């Protein structure tokens, strides 16, 4: 009896080991959780969004795709990397050095709300993938940034404003990497500061960026994510004397643009009015000067003339019929200095 129990236990352990070995082999070949993407994003109708999908090094030369559907096994592929077909709504590109493929979805409608999958094709095995949920609703999205792509020179700082309406913890994460959840921290050696004191927006500041800081990041608030791509370029020699702190590019919000326009338009009108007034004043002064010069000329001519009296010889009654002999003519002469 005891021997039977012994052999039964031995066979059970052997069978478990075999299953565990197959599981480990399958995990190593397919890579469970080897694809990372955002969890949930919100977009307004008519807008667009870029979705980054980070994959493991074993998938560098595999075909990548995006498919739509609640279940990975039955989802419909909408775009993939091994086709030349171009769509006006979907575009896909694969950055193999960074092991990230991105999908752009344009002209979103409420019908596009649903689950999507970042997928990798594996020949002879089940494809690998990870899902995200896209919500397209009217009105301002619950979490958004003004621009998803930002470019800055190395050594500079960058400020990203994450606008939100939902509740939950604020985070700034590198896609497939580390996160900063508190007020400050570091991601791959770059200093990160998060300021959530302003209502409906928290600000992320990344200091003294390097080219290694380039990549995809996630602005996270609660259960919503918004991807932001950062490109850090080499700084030109002409900009080496500039202070990185004073040159930090900040995303301009629509409110800022409205404020600038409301200030610039009245200023432009004021400049036009001043120019016209100065032109009219110049014309008026010129007219006054010409008039004064004309009056001075008339007085000068009068001062330069000498008048002589005309004397009539003979009786007064002869004035009605003067003759050449009784009239003396006189010609005005100018004075000599």
TrEMBL record:
| Keyword field | Membrane, Transmembrane, Transmembrane helix
Q: Which Pfam families match?
A: V-set (PF07686)
Q: Where in the cell is it found?
A: Membrane
Q: Which residues cross the membrane?
A: 7-29, 258-284
Gene Ontology CC annotation, any one: plasma membrane
Sequence ranges assigned to domain Immunoglobulin in this UniProt record: 38-137, 147-233
In the record, what terms sit under GO molecular function? Answer: transmembrane signaling receptor activity
* Protein name (Swiss-Prot/TrEMBL): Polymeric immunoglobulin receptor-like
């Amino acid at each position: 009896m005891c021997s039977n129990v012994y052999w039964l236990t031995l066979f059970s352990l052997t069978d478990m080991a075999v299953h565990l070995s197959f599981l480990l082999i399958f995990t190593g070949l397919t890579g469970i959780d080897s694809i990372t993407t955002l969890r949930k994003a919100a977009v307004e109708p008519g807008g667009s969004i870029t979705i980054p999908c980070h994959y493991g090094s074993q998938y560098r030369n595999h075909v990548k795709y995006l498919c739509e559907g609640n279940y990975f096994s039955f989802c419909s592929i909408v775009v993939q990397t091994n086709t030349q077909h171009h769509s006006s709504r979907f575009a896909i590109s694969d950055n193999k050095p960074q092991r990230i493929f991105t999908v752009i979805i344009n002209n979103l409608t409420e019908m596009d709300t649903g689950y999507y999958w970042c997928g990798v094709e594996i020949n002879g095995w089940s494809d690998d993938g990870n899902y995200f949920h896209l919500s397209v609703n009217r009105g301002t999205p619950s979490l958004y940034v003004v621009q998803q792509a930002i470019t800055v020179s190395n050594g500079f700082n960058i400020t990203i404003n994450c606008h939100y309406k939902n509740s939950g913890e604020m985070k700034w994460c590198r896609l497939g990497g580390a996160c900063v959840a508190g007020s400050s921290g570091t991601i791959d050696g770059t200093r990160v500061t998060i300021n959530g004191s302003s209502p409906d927006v928290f600000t992320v500041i990344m200091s003294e960026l390097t080219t290694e800081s380039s990549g995809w990041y996630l602005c996270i608030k609660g259960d919503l994510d918004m991807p932001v791509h950062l490109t850090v370029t080499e700084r030109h020699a002409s900009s080496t004397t500039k202070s990185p702190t004073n040159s930090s590019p900040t995303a301009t919000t629509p409110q800022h643009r409205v404020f600038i326009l409301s200030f610039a338009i009245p200023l432009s009108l004021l400049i036009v009015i001043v120019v016209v007034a100065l032109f009219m004043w110049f014309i008026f002064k010129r007219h006054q000067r010409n008039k004064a010069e004309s009056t001075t000329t008339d007085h000068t001519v009068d001062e330069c003339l000498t008048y002589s009296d005309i004397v009539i010889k003979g009786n007064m009654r002869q004035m009605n019929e003067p003759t050449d002999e009784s009239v003396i003519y006189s010609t005005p002469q100018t004075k000599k200095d």
